[in-house]
Predict the 3D structure of the following.
Amino acid sequence: MIPPLRSFIAEAAKARKKRDLERGEINAYRLGKQQFLVRVFFVHIIRDFFLLTLGVASAGFGLKGFLLPNHFVDGGATGISLLINQTTSYPLSVIIVIINIPFILLGYAQFGKAFVVKTGFAIVLLAITVAFVPYPVITSDKLLISVFGGFFLGMGIGLAVRGGGVLDGTEVLAIYISRRTSITIGDVILILNILIFSFAAYLLGIEIALYAMLTYLSASKTVDFVIEGIEEFTGVTIISPKSDEIRTMIIERLGRGVTMYKGSGGFGKGGMKQHDQQILFIVLTRLEIARLQTELDAIDPNAFVVMHSIRDTRGGMIKKRPLSH
């Protein structure tokens, strides 16, 4: 074979082998990425449906262990269902499904198919739970019924929201109305509950309506705790010419991570003069704020500090054990 031709064939074979190897690496990367995405999706689905099931169990306990046997009502779609159940002979399990169907349809337009599937699962499971699960009746004391019935019902609603669905569809309606009018979500929910409690006062008596308001307050506060978390965090922004020293203190003495970004100073003690400076941002628990303030006073008592509440955090070092000091 002619030497140049032999060299050309060898080079072509090497190039093809290299392309095949690169193509194989790319395919292996794509396959690995797909497997990772499927695993993440599967874990989230399991977690969401576990939270929905746990929420249904808690809400069912609040309904059958406290509210339903004692003829109490609540706010929202659950309150409407209980009110209809108390004034008619229709079973609560059927009423819950019928009342929430319009909210599910609204939710499809607002939040998509996944929301509808999860909400439909939760509401149907709640109806089955109310119809067939024999919860014990805990108490007949009206105050305990209002507080703890609302607590377990609110916990169930909050867990369902954590799982990506709802057990009470009035919030979906409130979001739908607020997006098309100037009324806020809170105002819509307030108006709906005023109507529900007014009907309860007319049909069941003022005393029952007042206890229903207490039940609703207990449930709504519990929902807030479950969704937003009981643990409160504080975001702290620090502006100081001694930013490097403060950063070292946060890392070494507090054992926390810190984010630094550049800013431009405007009017200050030096007058109308712009200058670049480092801005520090850190997230701490409430118990660490006092120590941070002490350490800051030791480094720069004139540092400009802004604090604001944070509902919850994810990732980073805030929920991990602090570094050893």
